[in-house]
Amino acid sequence: MFVTITVLLSIATSIVMAQPRVLVFTATTGYRHDSIPDSISALQARSGTDGVDFEFTEDPTRFNGDELGRFDGVMFLSTTGEGVLDSSQAQAFHTYLQNGGNFVGVHAATDCLGGEDWYVQTIGTRFDYHPELQPATFIPLNKTHPSMVGVPDRWTFTEEVYNYRSDPRNVGAQVVLTVDESSYTGSSGSSGNYDQGVPHPIAWYITDSLGAQPPTDGAPGTGRSFYTSLGHLSETWQDPTFMGHVMGGLKWALESGTTRWTNGTALVGAVQPQNSNTSAGSSVSSTMGTSTANGQASTSVSGTGMATSTSVSAGPMSSTPANSGIKDGSAVGKTAAVAGAIGGVIGLML
Ligand SMILES: *[C@@H]1O[C@H](CO)[C@@H](O)[C@H](O)[C@H]1NC(C)=O
Ligand SMILES: *[C@@H]1O[C@H](CO)[C@@H](O)[C@H](O)[C@H]1NC(C)=O
Ligand SMILES: *[C@@H]1O[C@H](CO)[C@@H](O)[C@H](O)[C@H]1NC(C)=O
Predict the structure, then answer these.
(1) For the chain, what are the domain ranges?
(2) What is the dotted CATH code of the domain comprising 20-254?
(3) Does the pLDDT of residue 115 top 90, yes or no?
(4) Ligand number with the minimum distance to the CA of 282
(5) pLDDT band of 327, cuts 50, 70, 90
(6) How many Cα atoms are found within 13 Å in the side-chain-facing hemisphere of 72?
(7) Which ligand is nearest the CA of 322, by number?
(8) Which residue out of 141, 143, 144 has the highest number of ligand 1 atoms within 8 Å of its CB and is therefore the one to mutate?
(9) Where does residue 231 rank: exposed (0-12), middle (13-18), buried (19+ CB within 10 A)?
């Protein structure tokens, strides 16, 4: 029952609330990480609490203007190899970034499309090598960035410590996470004697990336980029600290102001309802009475719905009715409207 309710809740949430939409691309033509299915599950599990709609794909034909234009962000997750996109798909992705689309790269995403200069500039650099998998200690450089909130001063876990072929700071990156190079072995130098800069970059963000210049005429600007080289092991994707790091970086990128989630005149992104004062709010709230009358099951549904709606309603949403007619005095405004709508939809489905 609980599982069913959870599924219904996420369906109801996506019907009722407009959320930023993110395409997660996990294609590989090189090394394939065993953790990909677990990383997908972990992101999906955060969808409701973080208020992000994910779509997962390995299909490069999704990289065309029409498809990409529906997304507020694109995440490359452990993508490897030069062949993950062909030249026209790569061009469509480049245009998406120029249109204001946001980008997040995770772990091996620096190990694909290395021949595309705009991609390398957008993500910040190219992967070079990593020492063997072993415990290492990572150190935040900027604890105010959303990707660093919750990361301890010394964060130790088993990970591949990436080294790169260039310093991402050369293309505008602000490095938010480094590594204590005395905390693991094999840290000296680089296999190709590249200069990746100091302190050793591990995660960073870029605004107005060179790779997305110039912005398309009519776009509010180019999007944001966030990259973390962490995320090799499945168990890392079970770690709430790591998930907070990834989701914080993603949500920072989505708040660029250059996509439809936050800007009605943007060229790309999930289309927002023009006015959330829709018939859904009122018709659903009357249904909620019916579902509450059904007893125990529906009581727990509306309780869960209330908790969920609190988190999904965070962020810059369009205006909501101040009072949707729900009688529950503990819920007001936006939260009440959403909870009522969710409860009502579930009531209808049950
Ligand atoms: C830390 O990150 C914030 C963004 O969250 C940024 O405004 C600030 O300039 C950064 N500080 C440093 C020292 O880079
Ligand atoms: C939204 O886009 C318009 C048009 O491109 C731009 O002028 C405006 O500054 C943007 N608003 C925000 C909040 O970024
Ligand atoms: C909200 O909905 C009510 C009832 O349908 C309508 O009378 C009112 O004009 C709407 N408000 C706005 C701002 O659209």
Answers:
(1) 20-254, 279-349
(2) 3.40.50.880
(3) yes
(4) 3
(5) very low
(6) 26
(7) 3
(8) 144
(9) buried
